[in-house]
Amino acid sequence: MQSQGHTSTILQLGADVLETEARAILQVRERLGEAFTQAVQLLLRCEGRVVVTGMGKSGAIARKIAATFASTGTPSLFLHPAEGVHGDLGMATRGDLVIVLSYSGETEEIVRILPAFKRLAIPIIALCGSATSTLGEQADVFLDASVEREACPLGLAPTTSTTVMLALGDALAVCAMQERHFTRDDYARFHPGGSLGRRLLLRVSDLMRTGDLVATVREETTVLETLLAITEARAGCAIITDDEGRLQGIITDGDVRRRLLQDPDCLRRRAAEVMNREAATIGPDRLATEALHIMESHRPGAIGDLPVLDDAGRLVGVVALKDLLRAGIV
After folding, report:
1. Longest CA pairwise span in the chain (Å)
2. How far is CA 260 from CA 240, 265, 266, in A?
3. What is the pLDDT of residues 18-61, one digit of tens each?
4. Cα–Cα dist 329/154, whole Å
5. Which terminus has fewer CB within 10 Å in the chain: N or C?
6. Residue 203 φ then ψ, to 5°
7. pTM strictly above 0.85
8. What CATH topology corresponds to 204-326?
């Protein structure tokens, strides 16, 4: 078991690393100037894609930056520089923009690929620690990513420098996103599998039950027959409609159980005598989140099923609370 003193040493080292990297980001903030504005303007004028490239740890950061651009409205891809000089350079074309990450600015694979970008007249934004390096001098825009020291106690492993590059990449992506008036709806379109995408994109029509999964009966149907219809459809309610499919009311299995406690003859009565004529409803084109809100805010208590009606008041389906929750609409 480690001593308390050893634990304190570990905590202090962790705190020192975070402080070193945080201070470096603040120093970069103080250095931001016209070059950063020029970089954002290049991004906004780019008619093609933003190609992000880097080697080693810088390459890992480049991948993340490319992913951030792509998910916030800027078409982007990662180009491995070593693969680039062996054919993958075809991924970059005129009209693109390239962001190159290299702390030294002298990474062999990066230096070898720069002339190809120049021949294609592709503007270069450098995230680099040296303005006098090969990369720094060949870049159209140089963003100073230099740091006083790496957080690594040996001063060797890229730590502070990669954090600064990542922060600069985020700053560029967010500024471009803001200038393009990128909205929550735009974000959802790029993230249909995420929880935000589901909340902003899924419609009632995407989740509602239809056909045999909906129990529908008439007003003259007995409550017993109504229960059988609910059971057969594996539903939580039955929808009472007229001959033209217009909603007349709703009966849930819970309604029947409560009614039986007061009226033992309930099962022989007509559905019209038991149904709730003031059922909450929703349209098929409404967001699934709206259906969830209606269900959860219903008074005197939350409801588990919501009839879905078209503009003429005809039943087209039922959306169930459990289906909304299963789809991640929370």
Report:
1. 92
2. 19, 7, 6
3. 999 999 999 999 999 999 999 999 999 999 999 999 999 999 99
4. 48
5. N
6. -100, 165
7. no
8. CBS-domain (3.10.580)
